[in-house]
Amino acid sequence: MKKCLFSCLILWSACFCHAQDALPNISKAWDMVWSRFYLPKVQTFGDCLSSYEKGKEQAHLPSADEVRRQYPNPCGYSTGMEDGAILGGAMLSVLCDRFEVTKDDSLREKAANVFEGLQRCATVHGVKGFVARNVCPEDAKSTYINSSRDQVTHFVHGLWQYFHSPMPDETTKQQIRVILADVAERMIETVTPENDFDFLRADGTRCPLGICRMWNVQAHEAARLPMIYAAAWDVTKNERYRVEWRKYAAEAVAQSANPGESKPAYALLQMQCSLELLHALEPDSALKAQIHTHMLHVRELAAKRFTSVVAQISKKSPEDMRMLGPDWRKVPEWKNQKGYPNPQWGTFREIWHLTREAGESALILMMIDSPTLTDEQQTSLKNLISGFDYTHNASCGLVYHLAAYWKARRHGLL
């Protein structure tokens, strides 16, 4: 008995030390996200930094005139306004996990601000149910007209988690009900065979890139449509959304079986978000078990990706990892993406991507029932966080490092 108690104390001590070693550095990541990436005028987050100088970190963001002209492209690709709805949804999830661990009441205000930013993305343009990628900080109202299923996935997942957390008041919960119902209504109206199951751009035209298609998609995308309906039903209890959810649920789960070995971490994370929501709400025990089997498979793929990405980062020099993003207006190479001119970030794209993938793949490992980490995974996560230079990294991937850390803390894995 004494031997067992001693072993438990040793194990607890090791885990505690890991958490304490990582905590000072993860606090730097937290500070950087809020001081450099957060856009207080619109309460959203930008994608990258082009300077470490205070007040100039995101000077590259498009002007209101550029956004109104849909310049350089209707997605805002490569401008720093590309992934605001994704990042806001992800940050709401971070705040839910951190609040669960710390019960820190100051997080309520931060979560309320992030929610207001997401609400702005869904309402400022006046197109009911359309989720804009971000909102221009210059005028706090201009948006690009082409969204994507990726934006909507994190948007819905984050709002759903926030709704079920202890943080929002009843007024905010009612606002979430309205927003998710509006998104679901847009899907019912537009995601039809006539539109090739596309939820359309804000101007009512088809997206030429295929990124707004919600059905007849790849395996890692198949669960997105029913998860939107399931979330809307869960918060409103409107039978209309339950019917839509059940119409697609079983087939979507069947299609989710084999997402492929080479999908990037962001695709696996969005798949896991959609499956996590469906798993939580699924009433049929057999289908629920099938969903969890798919989630375990996604976790296996993410484990391989996490190992690979950590190894790639270890080969980069400190100077590489400190690389800043460019002003997209001045880059030498632009690519035509089905009619959308897209400025290319050059070598910075890899640093931006690796930073994100490290956090995204680690986070997926813990998005299952009763998650565990191997000793190697725990050590890799601890070393990643404690050794990362968060004060000199220009990628919004810092959000996912926070997500992985607080998810690990929530489950007692760090």
Strand and helix map with partners:
Layout: H1 2-37, E1 38-39, E2 44-45, H2 64-68, H3 84-102, H4 106-123, H5 149-163, H6 170-190, H7 224-236, H8 239-255, H9 265-281, H10 285-314, H11 318-321, E3 334-337, E4 340-343, H12 348-364, H13 375-387, H14 398-410
Description:
With 414 residues, the chain is mainly α. The protein has one domain (27-410): Alpha/alpha barrel (Glycosyltransferase). 57% of the residues lie in helices and 3% in strands. The chain has 14 helices and 4 strands. The strands form 2 sheets. Strands 1-2 form a two-stranded antiparallel ribbon. The protein has a two-stranded antiparallel sheet with strand order 3-4. A hairpin with a 2-residue loop joins strand 3 and strand 4. Helix 3 runs antiparallel to helix 4, helix 5 runs parallel beside helix 7 and helix 5 packs across helix 9 (265-281). The longest helix is centred in the N-terminal third of the chain and has 36 residues, at 2-37. The chain is globular and about 55 Å long. The chain starts with a helix and ends with a helix. Residues 1-19 have low confidence and may be disordered.
